[in-house]
Write a structure and sequence with these properties.
147 residues, mainly alpha
Length: 147
């Protein structure tokens, strides 16, 4: 993947928007949608299974979560259609500083770190981005769990 493609995936803070549960074109949305299709009408079976396994008593909640994942509509932190529930100063700061990522800013690391929801993780991510570059970082972190 080239740098431009990485910019479509990674937020300015370095988190991978494309692997977020809210991402419109993400794998979680696709898999949740497919699972809903595969489990269509499973509610009646879940009621039977509840007799053998009490976890099935919560099946409705599981369905609700899958529906929420399947309705993901965010197109990432760099887009206008950003629906990330976390208020984050990086979304605007990177534009003001005319950089793609925090580590590219001449003020990095800055005192704004305390205002960033992922705090210490943000610093580690951006130090790694600075060390190996955005493309290599994306490939590296893409093999790790998002959460």
């Amino acid at each position: 993947m080239e740098y431009g493609g990485v910019l479509e995936k990674l937020a300015p803070c370095g988190l991978d928007c494309s692997r977020c549960v809210g991402f419109q074109e993400g794998e979680i949305k696709k898999l949740s949608t497919r699972l809903i299709e595969l489990l269509e009408n499973y509610q009646r079976v879940a009621a039977i299974m509840q007799k053998f396994n009490p976890a099935f008593a919560s099946y409705k909640g599981f369905e609700d979560i899958l529906q929420t994942f399947a309705q993901a509509s965010c197109t990432g932190c760099r887009s206008i259609n950003n629906s990330c529930p976390t208020p984050c100063i990086v979304k605007t700061c990177h534009k003001e500083k005319a950089v793609d990522f925090c580590f590219q800013c001449p003020d990095f690391p800055c005192d704004k770190q305390a205002q960033i929801p992922i705090g210490e993780r943000w610093l580690q991510i951006n130090q790694r981005l600075q060390e190996i570059g955005a493309v290599e970082y994306y490939q590296e972190q893409n093999r790790l769990p998002r959460y």
